[in-house]
Design a protein that fits this description.
By secondary structure, the protein is α/β, with parallel strands linked by helices. The chain has a single domain, classed as Metallo-beta-lactamase, Chain A. A hairpin with a 5-residue loop joins β10 and β11. The longest helix is centred in the C-terminal third of the chain and has 16 residues. The chain is globular and about 35 Å long. The N and C termini lie far apart (about 40 Å). The mean pLDDT is about 95. The structure holds zinc ion. Zinc ion binds next to α2.
């Protein structure tokens, strides 16, 4: 069953499909499913097993996006592309995709992500693209943990923040960017944070350093 929000749009269900201490989320309704972060390298059977347990068929997941191109967040992106899941890439993430190939070892069984066949867009264009697939929200740049880090914001108040940390826990050098990123997230009316690791939190839990 679908539920609509106060503006009559379909609210997104959020299903946690993580494993190995990393959170992945399938968001969507009966019309569209988007995967946020794409598994550890070489773990496709485990990923598919989690989907099965959560009653999600891979065919329903039409799109995937990666909060930042570290192995635990982007490891299966290419494997999933081969299975028909389109990869949304923000333009400023391209160099991080190339870098990921160089930091993985053969033992990781990482399938390198090809660059020519993604849905490439700017953060500015993300809202209209998401709207075209039935998702009310946008993707914003939220550096701090890494330069390519992005956050998916749903207008219903959810933010998928990847590894953006609490400013109280980051090194001095990352502090300013991290604070700016949280400020940008707050400005969009986010109430609930879905991180790449650890539990879902209410945004007020991050309020101490701003
Ligand atoms: Zn991570």
């Amino acid at each position: 069953m679908d539920f609509t929000d106060t503006m009559g749009r379909l609210a997104m269900n959020i299903v946690h499909v993580g494993y190995h201490s990393t959170n992945y989320y399938v968001i969507g309704n009966s019309h569209v499913q988007l995967l946020v972060d794409a598994g550890w390298p070489g773990t496709l059977p485990e990923f598919l097993a989690v989907l099965k347990r959560k009653n999600i068929s891979l065919q329903q997941i039409r799109y995937q996006m990666v909060t930042h191109y570290h192995p635990d967040h982007a490891g299966l992106a290419q494997d999933l592309k081969r299975l028909g899941v389109r990869l949304i890439v923000l333009e400023h993430q391209i160099s991080a995709i190339s870098l990921l190939k160089t930091i993985t070892k053969p033992v990781d069984r990482y399938t390198p992500i090809t660059l020519h066949d993604n849905l490439l867009m700017t953060t500015e264009a993300s809202r209209s693209f998401l709207s075209s697939i039935g998702i009310a929200g946008e993707i914003i740049s939220t550096p701090g943990h890494s330069a390519d880090s992005v956050t998916l914001i749903l207008d219903q108040g959810a933010a998928f923040t990847g590894d953006l940390q609490n400013p109280g826990f980051v090194a001095e050098s990352a502090m300013e960017l991290t604070v700016q990123s949280w400020t940008a997230i707050r400005a969009l009316g986010v109430t609930t944070v879905y991180p790449g690791h650890g539990p879902v939190t209410m945004l007020s839990a991050h309020a101490s350093v701003a």
